[in-house]
Design goal:
Blueprint (H helix, E strand, L loop, with lengths): L5 E4 L10 H7 L9 H15 L13 E7 L7 E2 L5 E10 L5 E3 L5 E4 L2 E4 L15 E7 L10 H16 L15 H7 L6
Antiparallel strand pairs: 1-2, 2-8, 3-7, 4-5, 4-8, 6-7
Length: 193
């Protein structure tokens, strides 16, 4: 079963690895604001296409806060999806009276992308519901563009350039250009499997 978290706080536009100025350079656009709206749309589309939990990658590109809802306490450690996980905000659960409680932070710790229960942790009783346990965590790369994998930055740049060069909805027979194959090749190792 693939665990899919929900978004609590989405990534801010300023946190993406390629900004409008870089998109203009990639598309060889002179100093003009004529295409800013289109390029902004292409950048947002590329980022959303890739960014988990609904995009095709298994790693978060830009920092966002996610919440993983579980029906019960995991019996052992749990790998949190859409890493790199930067921190765990909190672990909450619904007690037997269906009242939300916050688990003390001394009961767990983060090791890479894995939430590990402390040796002293004893799972409290919980209410039976699909979201009995909620793990909220911060994931993604920092807003410093140097932290982003070059492969992901290159794939976003190729997508934006392709969409800018092929803006027409209709193509003459024989001249239809598909997404560059290099994009798929670049992101293969980062895809959700």
């Amino acid at each position: 079963m693939r665990l899919v978290p929900r978004i609590v706080t989405p990534a801010a536009d300023a946190a993406w690895p390629i900004d409008l100025a870089m998109a203009k350079k990639l598309c060889v656009i002179e100093d003009t604001s004529e295409f800013d709206a289109e390029l902004g749309l292409f950048l947002a589309t590329a980022n959303q296409y890739l960014q988990p939990p609904f995009g095709i990658l298994r790693l978060s590109i830009a920092e966002q806060t996610l919440c993983l809802d579980l029906p019960c306490w995991p019996a052992c450690s749990i790998e949190l999806p859409a890493g790199p996980v930067r921190s765990i905000a909190h672990v909450k659960f619904f007690n037997e009276s269906n009242v939300e409680q916050t688990l003390d932070g001394s009961n767990y710790f983060l090791d890479n992308n894995e939430l590990i229960w402390a040796d002293t942790f004893s799972a409290p009783a919980h209410y039976t519901r699909p979201s009995a346990v909620r793990i909220t965590y911060v994931t993604g790369y920092a807003a410093d563009a140097a932290d982003y994998p070059a492969i992901v930055k290159t794939a976003i740049g190729m997508m934006v350039k392709h969409w800018f060069d092929n803006r027409e909805a209709v193509a003459v027979v024989g001249s239809l250009n598909m997404m560059p194959l290099g994009v798929d090749d670049l992101i293969t190792n980062y895809r959700v499997r």
